[in-house]
Design a protein that fits this description.
This protein is an alpha+beta fold and 135 residues long. The protein has five helices and four strands; from the N terminus they run ββααββααα. The strands form two sheets. Strands 1-2 form a two-stranded antiparallel ribbon. A two-stranded antiparallel ribbon has the order 3-4.
Length: 135
């Protein structure tokens, strides 16, 4: 869906957060690599995956009608990883709806030299400094 436009001519999109979360959790359940599977870098720790899976669907009934909502599994559970994943997904689909063609972009880069990445073993031995600003 093409987004509306603000006064400053910036495209705006409504994000169906619940629908994106449904899609993300369905993709997380896939056990085989292939279409739809989500690939994660090895550098992500257990805390990232706790945050990514920090919510669950809860169905309650009001006046006999089911109402689904995503709720934290535990009070105070951090879910920044899930939120950023959802908005990254929405941003990707916004770009696609505005004409970005990822397959064509990828095909045009075939054969180009990829930037060198650091060895994973070396990065694990490096000291990790964590910020306390959100605690």
């Amino acid at each position: 869906m093409q987004g509306a436009t603000s006064k400053a001519k910036i495209p705006l999109f409504i994000v169906g957060v619940d629908s994106v979360k449904d899609a993300v959790f369905a993709r997380l359940k896939l056990t085989e690599a292939g279409p739809g599977a989500i690939h994660f870098p090895r550098r992500l720790d257990a805390d990232y995956f706790r945050q990514l899976t920090a919510e669950r669907v809860v169905t309650r009934f009001e006046k006999g009608r089911p109402i689904r909502s995503w709720q934290p599994k535990r009070d105070g559970e951090r879910n920044e990883a899930l939120d950023t994943f959802v908005y990254a997904h929405a941003a990707l689909h916004g770009l696609i709806s505005m004409g970005m063609r990822l397959n064509e972009e990828a095909e045009s880069n075939v054969g180009r030299a990829m930037p060198r990445t650091r060895n994973v073993a070396n990065t694990e031995s490096q000291r990790i400094i964590r910020s306390g600003w959100m605690r």
